[in-house]
Write a structure and sequence with these properties.
homotetramer, alpha/beta, Rossmann fold, 7-stranded mixed sheet, 18% strand, elongated, magnesium (chains A, B, C, D), metal-binding (chains A, B, C, D), transferase (chains A, B, C, D), glycolysis (chains A, B, C, D)
Chain lengths: 341, 341, 341, 341
């Protein structure tokens, strides 16, 4: 068999672990050939690829990033790919294509699959927001990095009587905020799924101070937003090139809390450190399993599918099912996190 | 409600997170009272306990060990507890008892529940070998510690052309060896579930050297054993007090491989570092959820049950079901790990 | 002997290790009594203090923050303290006072010492900018946190062909930027000690891209600034309360580089995570030694001094000497860092 | 200039950082050429080497091990090297040779230097026992790994009322035990420099238990030994191949303490994890500076020297001076560590 593989979308710890696993399983388990396309779908369209052998993937299991590179692709070129699926498969002699990526990539994968490309997708997102799988690799690493940061900030907040606002990733789903907030013992957690009342946060902090706990840590997803009327409108900022730039919610909330509480409040915006670097053991295992199962699926001819974790098993689910709706944090999980003091 | 809580058995990162979560949920969510028995069931029998308030559990979320202490209990005294269940519950005014522990503790919990104690168990084991739950807290931390060790050993093995044998915990189930071996990219993994052939390991190492990869890392569970006839009988050692002591499998296997390969092989026995210290974010979240759900179960009157992770949900399963058989590594999972080079 | 101790100024990993060491050495080595003033000099003036025994300092060696709290003090009240030194010493029965703090605290300590208080200072700053000591505790932790962040960002930068600008702490001295930049392998390092030319950075990045290294990481101290004319004037931003806020150099530089290079440049502002949490082994050892030597100095009657690391030895230097000038990064050290690609 | 470089002796985090730094400085700073000999002096004698360019050292700064490999060399072959120094230098066109290694390597380097080879040595040892330099790279990483292990073990010891004996590296000098013991807050530290009395350890543990601290952690260097008569003679063990094997001091001491105290005592032997893997930020900086200064020394023609850290400066010291005596832990440093409870 000749298997193509590519990585697309933003960075996510575990991408290299999938690539390595696919190569190991395909070469050593089946005697296949594997080619890796560079910079996502671009490499597929433009013919940039290389053969991947065991040496090529040696030592990459624990390395962040992706040895194949990744790049955004315009919609138009994706359509081009879909229209020329058969020609593309023929050009590279592909018996299977394994794209690794997030929602956008999997939607593209589905388009290609519908157009006749033998595709097995591997879901990838640090945001954990793909509904067809219990978890995605990269998420555990992001939560771990965010939790370590909260651990550090908490001791400073406590000894220096401060409010700390930590902004973590998560534009549409608050999984990272939820889990790092719980793991770090944050006293408030704000998610995109539910507009927050600044008053509630103010009250929580004041109650803490009243009972002698003169500090608080609030974990806020970048996509969280205040309930209407809960926070004054912010004015945009003009950068040195005349572009308007808006403060993120972390910065705004810290200003707001300092204003209302009359106590020092400091924002920390974790940013890209959450999505790079050495993956946790959990993410390496999950990524390795996904790679293994993607190859097996290809050999069984189960195309148009995506690997997914369900309980303790890695299974396959139709791509169609995987990308229809975002997996957001359900009420029950928010409720579990509420008794965090 | 008045809820008793105790921790029993060996150490496990996340115990304090459960205690904290129970106290938070019971006090702040329900206005309950919580008392903590010291040193496991001993404290229950001997009347050593203290009231747990929010201050008592402040700052313990990320701390290893257990603020309640833990101790082994003799079978006879357990029977004593079971026989006096009603009296014990009355003495402390207990409406619910939440014991946190491994297989032994949960078996004891079941005895007490059968004898009339209103019990909700919380499973705890770094070995991940309790069948009724997808995962137990403590396991992720153990795997993380073992993986970090393998990461470190691998670079030495590679640059100094050595075989490294890493012995990890797991007497009856090989989960830690399986997952840390996969995450660390070990070239051989030996589990208690399947006797290993030393010849297979020798062959694997020789093939690696032959294709220029002049090193290997082998991850072996402490409970793994060679297939009959696969390794010579080892003589015991006599320590300074005349007791015979047997070398663990890690030491023996390193000697054996060095002998057969004619290459340096070094054992590293990770031991207790795997079961102590700061829990990972994953384990903190799971432990916190278990504590929360144990309190809810108590309030719903669901006794004789144990918290369990199933997929993404925390549910309750009968204690009877939980302790009947050990969850060992299934063939499918071993198979997934085999294409690791 | 009766020894007073206090911590003042911003957070710094290792403060608790000094407190613990002072208590251990004083109590167990000399049979002294130790009292801890709360919230820095405020506690001394306002009479907020508690006796510190072995239990009080148990388990704090590796904990961030300070169990004594810390707070800023107005100049006026400091003068008040200096004027009432003898009365203060008498009130608490102090034979020695050990203030732990940065430049401001040590200047205050010197004032008190000049006014007759028996003071032995312990220097504390994550910035490493106190000239009389080779290193200060807290610095190694800050560099470690920043380096881990750069390690993570580098893999993303590499696989996604990006320029990453990491802003680390250091308003007047660039030690953290220098050492984390070297340790993380940053391709550009900007320090407060030397205005940087944006053109140089642009050229460096372009040369890297030209030879196939399509990414770059630039480590910039918060106090670094562009050479005059090197970067357009930035307009301030107006926040929701009408206060003008200025973008930090990290954000501005990322905007500038993206504009000039036509490539994605992303800022990451590490902020307070650098100054909190578990201290590194190095910082714990140094802090412990400083505490031990401060007690010994008190017993030898060497007041008006400060502990200092010189080579491998901890010695004492006059407070007067310690606070006269800031220790900035010398040319030689910048030169060493320049051949980082 | 044409510069040869090689790494010899046991593994040590930071070796790759030196190699990278030498290549960067030599190529980019001076336009030199650098060749790397494989497997230490063997590569020099047998002609195994390769040119090192910027790509070759890309990404290795934070990687453990050595990309050049390392191997032991017999004395006889070293003499061969010394006798043919001029011929060797001519064969490879070497203007300078930079060997990176421990005591043995530096002694060899001195022999070659005396025989006319233009040598600049770089000291390397995790044991920190080279007297001419304040610190060696690798040491900080070893201490960090050992401290993290003690941190983990302490929580288990505390909650399970145990004595833990942690054996760390250090055959002739106890630096790792000293600093990790201090940083981890070990209650007893045993060094090769001073035979220990088991009675003292027993008394310390009993006093701790008496005052309610029912646990203890003892940090013992592998080269520590009991005072004569302090511990019964141990019998050797016979392995499966008839070789006598002696238990290390960690195992023996745990047996002894359990016997005398009547309490559970558990040994943990950290072993090779201390000498491999990602170097700490401190070690990366020191290694990078050593590499930079070695190249500068070569260009200034300062041969027969070794790089050394003295205070905050990297300087050069004669190889002759560097290898005459082992740097052991002085009484003063032991004394500082004694008030650890």
């Amino acid at each position: 068999m000749r298997i193509g593989i590519l990585t697309a979308g933003g960075d996510c710890p575990g991408l290299n672990a999938v690539i390595r696993s696919v190569v190991h399983r395909a070469l050593a388990g089946h005697g296949d050939e594997v080619i890796g396309f560079e910079d996502g779908f671009k490499g597929l369209l433009d013919g940039h690829y290389r053969r991947l052998d065991l040496n090529e993937v040696s030592g990459i299991l624990a390395r962040g990033g992706t040895i194949l590179g990744s790049a955004r692709l315009e919609r138009a070129r994706l359509r081009e790919a879909a229209e020329n699926c058969e020609e593309l498969a023929r050009r590279y002699g592909l018996d299977a294509l394994i794209p690794i990526g997030g929602e956008g990539t999997l939607t593209a994968a589905r388009m290609l699959a519908d157009a006749g490309m033998p595709v097995v997708g591997v879901p990838k997102t640090i945001d954990n927001d793909i509904s067809a799988t219990d978890r995605t690799f990269g998420f555990d690493t992001a939560v771990t990095v965010a939790t370590e940061a909260i651990d550090r900030l908490k001791t400073t907040a406590e000894s220096h009587q401060r409010v700390m606002v930590v902004e973590v990733m998560g534009r549409h789903a608050g999984w990272i905020a939820l889990e790092s907030g719980m793991a770090g013992g944050a006293h408030g957690i704000c998610l995109p799924e539910r507009p927050f009342q600044v008053d509630d946060l103010v009250k929580m902090v004041e109650e803490r101070f009243a009972r002698g706990k003169k500090f608080a840590v609030i974990c806020v997803a970048e996509g969280a937003h205040p309930a209407e009327g809960s926070m004054p409108y912010e004015k945009g900022e003009i950068d040195q090139y005349g572009h308007e730039r808006f403060q993120g919610i972390g910065n705004r909330l810290a200003v707001e809390l300092e204003h209302r509480l009359g106590k020092e409040a400091r924002p920390v915006i974790l940013g890209h450190v959450q999505r790079g670097g050495v993956p946790t053991a959990y993410d390496r295992v999950l990524a390795t399993r996904f790679g293994w199962h993607a190859v097996e699926a290809a050999h069984r001819g189960e195309f148009g599918m995506m690997t997914a974790l369900r309980g303790t098993q890695v299974t396959l689910v139709p791509l169609a099912e995987a990308v229809t709706r975002l997996k957001t944090v359900p009420e029950g999980r928010m409720h579990e996190a509420e008794s965090v003091f």
